Amino acid sequence: MARAKNDTPAPQARLLDGTLARIVPAQFGSGWEVDVDGTPQSHVDLDDPTHLSFEYVARMGAVIDQLRLPRQPLTAIHLGAGGLTLPRYIEATRPGSRQQVVELEPALWDLVRENLPLPRGAQIRVRIGDARAGLGRLPAALVGAADLVVSDVYSGAQTPAHLTTVEFYTEAARYLAPEGVLLVNVADGAGLAFARRQVATISRVLEHVIILAEVQTLKGRRFGNLVVAASAHPLPTAWLPRLMAAGPHPAKVAEGREVDEFARGARVAVDGDATDSPKPASTLFER
After folding, report:
1. Domain 54-263, what fold?
2. CA distance 18 to 35
3. Burial of 26 (0-12, 13-18, 19+ CB in 10 A)
4. Are 143 and 78 in contact (CB under 8 A)?
């Protein structure tokens, strides 16, 4: 961005639901945050796109690092854009990757594009529209070809119900290559009822599932983000030590029976009975 961090006012845009999106200095360290209605949705460091400030995004990055060979380009689909943190990360760590992004809010994309520009020459195509409807409009050649599908979609601080169902995940999984990985950001609080239902739902579509989270979040003792990684192909157990070592700490990676126990008794979410993700307390993101 051209402006200094102490300049005011912050660049902003009004979204379709009337909420205000702003680009503000990062609360901690370098870079910028895309803030929507008081909720920090993305962190972007233009000087270092490999700097993943949000813990759950760093865990997603750790999984992405294990895909294929190091530095080998990926084919990736991102549902939900925000500041395009992960597309920037993939472009920086795996030059030549082909990436498709679906973002609902045209005003948000314009805000990010103008103030946090993408690297010149990056093969990142942004399409405007609902994430689920946008899946159906992606090029047919992507079906069965994606190394990675990321679902990190929020309206304000919640994931809309229609993006949490077995029908939605079935459509997303169609795009995965045989060893491709689906990554889902799931936010939940005490008891983890929503997260347990999401793991049960994703497990219905893709057989092999692991969960990455901060220890207290995975125990349901605090509101936070859980990263669910799933694939039709076994996720190599050799990943786990590297994922644990990558942090952030204290970290937990659940697999196998632990995942089965986590989801035991949870009802699979289907169209017609799904719910939005729980809304965090208004004080959670106070600056």
Report:
1. Rossmann fold (3.40.50)
2. 14
3. middle
4. no
How far apart (Å, rounded) are the C-alpha atoms in residues 160 and 146? 24
pLDDT for 112 beyond 70? yes
* Residue 8 pLDDT grade (very low, low, confident, very high; cuts 50, 70, 90): low
CB-based contact 65:57 (threshold 8 Å): no
Please state whether 196 falls in left (phi above 0), alpha (psi between -120 and 50) or beta.
alpha
Each residue's pLDDT tens digit, 198-211 = 999 999 999 999 99
Angle at 283 between CA 282 and CA 287, to 5 degrees: 115
**What is the Cα–Cα distance from 80 to 44, expressed in whole angstroms?**
15
Span 29-85, pLDDT tens digits:
899 999 998 888 999 999 999 999 999 999 999 999 999 999 999 999 999 989 999
Residue-range domain boundaries for the chain: 54-263
* Residue whose tokens read 């965090």: 280
Residue 56 in contact with residue 185, Cβ under 8 Å? Answer: yes
Task: Give the H/E segment covering residue 76.
Answer: strand 75-79
Q: Please name the residues in contact with 136: beta carbons below 8 A apart, sequence gap of 6 or more.
A: 171
8 Å CB contact between 183 and 58: no
Helices (H) and strands (E) in the chain, counts: 9, 12
Closest CA to 250 of 211, 219, 212, 215: 215
